[in-house]
Amino acid sequence: IGCDAAQQRVAAPADIDTAVTLGLNYPYGPLAYGDRVGGATVLRILRTMCDYTADMRYRPSLWLARRAALGGSLLTRRGGRLREKPAETFRRLFAILRGRRRSCRRSGGRA
Asked: Do the Cβ atoms of 39 and 67 come closer than 8 Å?
């Protein structure tokens, strides 16, 4: 949900984390925890859960897929391969999107 809110620009990623940390008394927000685990790991877990349960609430957002492809931080704009060549960036992003299209087929929804 945090990635969807960041994608829709409801709030800045740091603000989303602060709201969850203060509002729910969690030690970390969803994006800070995702940074600790790694964006690619979170993406892989969500895809696996979506395929296994066929529940669309586990479908990863494009924002998360894009960040995982670039290897950047989920919480800040820094880190990872954000400064790589555009052709390499697009190649990684399209590879992730092709994988996303295959996920959640059992649910009949578009991925």
From this structure: yes
